[in-house]
Amino acid sequence: MDTSDRKQAMTDDSPVIGIDLGTTNSVVAISIDGRVRVLEEGGTALVPSVVGIGADGRLLVGQAARNQLAAFPDRTIASVKRRMGQAVTLPMAGTSYTPQEISGVILQALKARAERALGRPVSRAVITVPAFFDEPQRQATLEAGRLAGLTVERIINEPTAASLVYDAGSDERRHVMIYDLGGGTFDVSIVRMERGVVEVLSSKGDTSLGGDDFDELLARYVADRFLQEHGHDLMAHGSTRWRLLTGCERAKCELSTAATARIVEEFIATVKGRQVSLDIDVSRDEYERLIRTLVDRTIVCVDMAIVDAGLSLSQIDELILVGGSSRTPLVQRRLREEFRREPRWSVDPDLAVALGAGTQAAAIAGLAIGPVLVDVATHTLGIAAMTDGPHGAHLAFCPILHRNAPLPARFEDLFFTHDDMQDMAAIEVFQGESPRLEENRKIGHFMLEGLNASSDCDGRIHVRFELSLDGTLEVTAIESKSGISQRLAIVDALSTMKNAAGAAERLGRLPGFSSAVAATAAHQAGGGVASDPAPADPHAPILHRAKRALATLGPEDAADVERLLQLVAEARAEGDESLLGGLVAELDDLLFYAAG
Ligand SMILES: Nc1ncnc2c1ncn2[C@@H]1O[C@H](COP(=O)(O)OP(=O)(O)OP(=O)(O)O)[C@@H](O)[C@H]1O
Ligand SMILES: [Mg+2]
Question: Which atom of ligand 1 lies at the shortest distance from residue 46's CA?
Fold first, then answer.
């Protein structure tokens, strides 16, 4: 930051808002009159994370979009957070959008809500992401913020945000576990709180485990009962699937307090020319049998997080529950069994993350001194390099910045050129925990060219990794002899922001989306870091996984996968991109459940 920037930052009294950008619901919070509060409209702070195009062609966000989800699934997009960082496009009313574009629309609605509450423009925000989000997913969140016309001051982890809401001011050292089970993601973090400092010791999670999955399991169960009786699969058709899912979500929430719930959907299908209704009772016992495996998966993460933090169960002083799905009785029961103590609930589990984001936002705006934040890297980052092994030299993963390193982090390592007269080196950046290169995820690469080739094979290359608090990774490679250097800020190969002009144009065409914002976003993105060319086929990884899975799946799942692969081939032959996107997403979901 140079002097003029610093002066600008010191005199900048523009408000900073805190945003919990959730899979199911989003919430915006801000400090007003010295208190952080969530912004309500129509009696609720929750803005459903749903975007749609109404019958009149207008853009719908939040409850209005959610209301049309069951009736018009082709014109509506929900749970976009699960797709963040993936090279997929999502069809909506005949046009395809990237996940960050759709998230950008949600963020713009939250920004507008804050502007209505404050009566002045808002352009700065703190946005939360699951602690387990990887680089491409964080990058996609930043891009969504830019598309919404927001300067994202900080990306913080959801459990860290939640912990900020709880009193961190006490002198006593406490270890707190934050268990956050939301709509689409699960996170568990162990934090240490002491004298106003919150330090994340470890984070574990699952980016595709949440209440949406509970809904799907219940819907599949109900659909199977309906199928047995009527020979018709409600999950196989877009609109009945959504109606069933909506009804099952309602029943699921009822089952948190009631022993049974009734799912009634009038005239849901036409079977042999006759209109048939759905009317089924589900007991809590039946429901808990369906979700037990998923809940147990969260408990495995809990155990791993405690080990990673270097603690034992008895050293955890407190357990805080966050996220709507943490209201599920089975979840609480399993945690009680595990901890033999009562979880704490003092803040509404739906709002804790947004309130924490608002607390951090207030601190950035200089309004309040919140607890100091110490965050950690949630993945190991490194590069590919030749390593000697029992079977000779081979390419392996060499970690540079280890998981759980406190942020901001800066680590460096030294590498040597491999061949005599080598005048260039490929720096390939990976993320993951396996020594085997192919089991990690490649997140970027660049070439260091013009090396000082010499026959003494002494080309030393320093590779430096700098990971900022918002999770942006800068990789620098420097050859010591020549001083030649090259730097890369990670914009993942999967990132689709490279087509920012297209994104701005598509969003600008939506009635109701501010075209000025879209134009700014395109301008900002234009100056960004060059990213890798688009993969030839964005669906290839899922299709490949599906074909491989055929060998191991049970006969029913395999038949479903084969049917979907056949439909994918047909959609592709017809060039129907929107159908193709939907089918691949369905395939992705199917593989996930089959694996679970
Ligand atoms: N009483 C309840 N019992 C069980 N589940 C509930 C209850 N109330 C809400 N939920 C579920 O909580 C989920 C939404 O939680 P929340 O708003 O915390 O998620 P989110 O923040 O949008 O998602 P994420 O944190 O995964 O991005 C939904 O799946 C919803 O069905
Ligand atoms: Mg959440």
Answer: 17
Residue with CA nearest ligand 1 atom 10: 324
Count how many Cα atoms sit within 13 Å of the Cα of residue 207 in the half-sphere of its side chain: 19
Ligand 1 pocket: which residues have CB below 6 Å?
Answer: 22-25, 81, 182-185, 210-212, 249, 252-253, 256, 323-325, 327-328, 350
Catalytic residue check, 111? no
Beta-carbon neighbours within 5 Å of ion ligand 2? 22, 182
54 SS3 class: coil
Please answer whether residues 535 and 87 qualify as being in contact, where contact means their C-beta atoms are separated by less than 8 angstroms.
yes
DSSP β-bridge partners for residue 127? 19, 155
Q: Say which residues have a Cβ less than 8 Å from residue 225's Cβ, sequence separation at least 6.
A: 280
Torsion of CA 289, 294, 295, 299, to 10 degrees: 140
Q: Does domain 14-166+347-371+497-526 fall into CATH 1.10.760.10?
A: no
pLDDT per residue as tens, the chain (596 positions): 344 443 334 446 789 999 999 999 999 999 887 788 999 999 999 999 999 999 999 999 999 999 998 888 899 999 999 899 999 999 999 999 999 999 999 999 999 999 999 999 999 999 999 877 888 999 999 999 999 999 999 998 888 888 888 755 566 888 989 999 999 889 899 988 877 677 788 988 887 799 999 999 999 999 999 999 999 999 998 779 989 999 999 999 999 888 889 999 999 999 989 999 999 999 999 999 999 999 999 999 999 999 999 999 989 988 888 999 998 989 988 998 888 776 766 567 888 899 999 988 988 888 754 544 446 677 789 999 988 777 777 889 998 887 666 667 777 788 888 776 778 888 999 988 888 898 888 888 888 888 876 645 467 888 988 887 767 788 999 887 788 888 888 754 223 333 445 555 656 666 666 544 444 344 333 322 222 223 346 676 677 677 767 767 777 888 888 888 888 888 887 777 778 878 887 887 777 666 65
Catalytic residue status for 272: no
Q: Does 81 participate in catalysis according to the annotation?
A: yes
Count of CB atoms situated within 10 Å of the CB of 2: 7
- Of the residues 101, 135, 180, 249, only one is catalytic, namely 180
Protein residue whose Cα sits closest to atom 28 of ligand 1 = 183
Rounded distance from Cα 183 to ligand 2 centre (Å): 7
Q: Which ligand is nearest to the CA of 348?
A: 1
CATH number of this structure's domain 381-489: 2.60.34.10
Nearest CA to ligand 1 atom 2: 253
Residue nearest to atom 25 of ligand 1 (CA): 182
Active-site residue, 13 included: no
Closest by CA position to 328, among listed 214, 178, 224, 462: 214
* Element (DSSP H or E) covering residue 485: strand 485-489
Q: Which residue has the tokens 């963020």?
A: 107
Gap from CA of 277 to ligand 2 centroid (Å): 34
Which ligand ends up closest to the CA of 45?
A: 1
Between the CA of 52 and the centroid of ligand 2 the distance, in Å, is 21
CATH for the stretch 211-289: 3.90.640.10
**Can you read off the two tokens belonging to residue 159?**
């459990």
Domain ranges of the chain: 14-166+347-371+497-526, 211-289, 381-489, 540-595
